[in-house]
Design brief:
Type Iii Antifreeze Protein Isoform Hplc 12, two-stranded antiparallel ribbon
């Protein structure tokens, strides 16, 4: 009886050990198969070529790529048909996952990147005026207008018309690829309505030059009157030329002749002797002008007497 109990216990222990060994073997085999097969993969829709903003997606521009499940970006899509007909809002590189946040079902492309009350204006640039292609989307620039005024003042004027302006796109790109320069014939700037008018007028009247800013420099400098050719070539100690004195206006009418002086009429004094009395009086004059030969003669002659002693 005792031997039977020991045998039963040993048999149960053997069965448990065999079962545990089998489970370990199965687990190791499964792990080995998983390691050989690699990580679990999930299908993700990516772009089959570089796509600029504003392009409408179709099946030829999309493809499926397998991504590790833990590496699938948020907003990725696994079915191509769910993205057909939508519009890209940004630049997409080849084999880049097409995320929902980079698409628009209403279309528009660049217009979706413009804030309310703002405007997107494109200006012509070349290799020099575009800072050798180093002006890329997201940068901030100043705009300098160079206007030739030779027809009026015979000089050229350079003036900063806009400061701290955001670059929306360079050419057809709205996103930069690292820090690589972009060769473009135009740059799109984000401005308000009034600044859009300034850009249009300056581009029509002259040439525009971009000045690249440090992204941390947001200070707007005081407005300057601009620089002309004359002030550029003027020496540091040279003073501004004073305008020539203006001549007084000369009248064509002859100057009036001076009036002749009025004649001074001298009046004689009469001395009257009456006995021992001596009296001096002025002779009475006629109210009417007298002749020249009688002007200074006394009116009364018979009153003139001689001294009594003669």
């Amino acid at each position: 009886m005792r031997s039977r109990s020991i045998f039963a216990i040993g048999l149960v222990a053997f069965i448990c050990a065999a079962a545990a060994t089998a489970m370990v073997v199965l687990y190791l085999q499964k792990t080995a198969r998983l390691a050989a097969a690699g990580p679990l993969l999930t299908p993700v829709v990516v772009s089959s070529a570089d796509l600029s903003f504003g392009q409408t997606l179709d099946a030829s521009k999309l493809k499926i790529a397998m991504f590790p499940r833990e590496s699938v970006p948020k907003g990725a899509v696994s079915v191509i048909d769910s993205l057909v007909g939508q519009t890209t809002k940004v630049f997409l590189a080849q084999d880049e996952p097409v995320l929902v946040s980079k698409l628009s079902s209403i279309g528009g492309g660049l217009s979706l990147m413009i804030a309310p009350t703002m405007r997107a204006v494109s200006i012509k640039v070349d290799k020099v005026s575009g800072v050798s292609g180093f002006v890329i989307p997201g940068d901030r620039v100043d705009v300098i207008a160079v206007v030739d005024r030779s027809t009026t003042t015979k000089e050229t004027l350079a003036k900063t018309i806009l400061q701290n302006i955001e670059v929306l796109a360079a050419g057809a790109q709205t996103e930069s690829k690292g820090n690589e320069p972009i060769t473009a014939q135009s740059v799109t700037l984000l401005v308000d309505a009034e600044s859009a008018e300034k850009l249009a007028l300056a581009q029509n009247e002259g040439k525009l030059q971009l000045s690249l800013r440090n992204p941390n420099d947001t200070e707007v400098a005081e407005e300057t009157p601009g620089l002309t050719t004359k002030s550029l070539l003027k020496g540091p100690k040279e003073k501004d030329e004073e305008p020539p004195p203006q001549r007084a206006a000369v009248s064509s009418k002859p100057a009036p002749k001076p009036e002749p002086p009025k004649p001074v009429i001298k009046q004689d004094t009469l001395t009257i002797f009456r006995g021992t009395d001596v009296k001096k009086e002025k002779p009475a004059m006629d109210t009417k002008p007298a002749a020249k030969d009688t002007l200074n003669k006394p009116a009364v002659k018979d009153t003139l007497t001689k001294p009594s002693g003669e």
